[in-house]
Amino acid sequence: MTDEALIPYDTTLFVRDHCLCLHAQRAARALARRFDDALRPLGLTNGQFSLLMALNRPEPPPMGPVAAVLAMDRTTLTAALKPLERRGLVVVGPDPRDRRGRLLRLTREGRRLLTEAFPIWQDTHAKLDAELSAVDMNTLRTGMMAIA
Fold first, then answer.
1. Among 5, 63, 89, 119, whose CB has the most other CB atoms within 10 angstroms?
2. What is the pTM of this model?
3. Cα 121 from chain centroid?
4. Domain count, the chain
5. Residue in 86, 77, 88, 25 with CA at minimum distance from that of residue 51
6. 80, 22 Cβ separation under 8 angstroms
7. How many whole angstroms from its chain centre is CA 42?
8. Which residues in the chain come in under a pLDDT of 50?
């Protein structure tokens, strides 16, 4: 085997500059850090905020629809719920209509924390929108939702 590259470096640069997956991953990490930093004083990550918000429904949802909204499998959702359960923010209980199923419910403390976190999310989002004023955010969101 030689040290000679099989794919020219120009191709590497092309992929770096055009790969939607790479750019989406980099953007997702940057956004996650920004929202993690903003929510840190409340002891929340951006993922935990999204999970709490996904549970903010008139009726406690089953795991399947929550996992679908968050684009995660049930095993990952179960792991993500554990620290929120330990903090008393979420209760996972049996579904009275189907004892095999589980319903997810925000506790009073979970609703209180979500109420405190939402203005932080709004402020962080407003700053981000202002920084990206040259970008059509509705088109960006529509494109991202189409991919997801």
1. 89
2. 0.89
3. 12
4. 1
5. 77
6. no
7. 17
8. none
